[in-house]
Each structure stands twice: as structure tokens, then as C-alpha cells.
Amino acid sequence: MIEQSWPYLLAVSCLSALVFIVFKKRSGKQQLDPRLSQKERMFTSILEKAVGEGFRVVCKVPMDAVFDAETTLSERAQRKAVKPLLGLQFDYIVCAQSNDAIICAVELDDHIYHKARDKQQDLFIEELCYETGLPLLRVAPQNGYNLVEIIERFEHTISAFGLEKPNVECNKFGLKLIKAYSSKQ
Fold it and tell me: Where does the DUF2726 domain start and stop, copy by copy (predicted)?
């Protein structure tokens, strides 16, 4: 009798495991990107709380998905304008929940400048964000984050940038900020 029931027992075990996995995926929080470092995972949950429910946080966003070449440029000039963005990514972007408009970029400065190129890259990102009208929030990695401080810095970054917004119609990069970000791009 036991020899005949083991296939049924195996089938019930497999079915139970499958139901558990499906239930966990549906009821659990959004899975964090496996490419994130431990510090980035910890900061992601703080940042999601800090920006609130009106916004969504997207991790590891390629810069060429955030900026587009000016349409007034020739095809060759457009390719040249986008080329420096290839291979670069923002640690996070914050989008409006309602229309996916990009509100802010967030960089977790979790590196030490071992090479001059790293510092140059950070300066390039800061200047690019300023010239194209994208607020940039830089946060130093910590063992623990003060939620209130992150909220205040986020709010200050997006409100202060509106006051000192540059002329984004023309910039030296030949790039413009896209209107809305879709992770399906």
C-alpha cells in the first residue's frame, strides 16, 4: 500500500510547493533588482518610503533611456550627443506615479575616487542633469539612514531646482530629458 501511494504524496508535495511560490510572488513586495549591492538594497527601501506613494522609484536606469538627442540636430550629431551616455546609468530615478514623468535622479555615492575618470564621470552627470533640467540628489552611503533627512533632502532637491532651472531649450550636450519613463523601453 505504501509503495502505491508515494507518487500521490510526491504530486501533493509538488503542488503545495507550487502554490506556495505563486502565493509568495503575488503577496510579497516588489522584488529588488538582483544587480543591487547590499547598500543599494538598503537605500532603496528608505528612498521608496521617503518619496511617498505619489512616486515610484526605478533602479539602475540607463542614461540613454532618460535623455534623448535634440530633434533639431542632424542624425550624425544626434548619435554623437547620445554616445557619452552609453554604458552609464543612474542608481535611481523617481517618477510620478500618475504619468511616469521623471521627477528626480538619485545617485548613491558608494565609491571612492580611485581613478580620475570616476570623478570626471560624476562631474559630467552633475552638469548634464543641471543643463537638461533634471534635479539630481546625491546621497552618501551609510550604515543607517535617517528617513526624515532623506525626505527633506528629496523635497529640497525637487523644489530648489524649480527656482534655479536653467534654459533647457538649448544646452551644450544636445540632449533633452524625456517626458516620461517607462521601464518597458
Answer: 36-155
> Whole-angstrom Cα distance, residue 82 to residue 98?
28
CA distance 180 to 169: 17
For helices 147-163 and 38-51, give the axis angle rounded to 10 degrees.
70
Strand partners, 89: 62
User: Phi and psi (nearest 5°) for 61?
Assistant: -100, 120
Cell of 84: 557619452
Contact 132, 175 (CB under 8 A): yes
Centre a 10 Å sphere on the Cβ of residue 62 and count the other Cβ atoms it contains: 14
pLDDT in tens, 80-127: 999 999 999 999 999 999 999 999 999 988 666 566 777 888 899 999
Residue 158: count of CB within 10 angstroms of its CB? 16
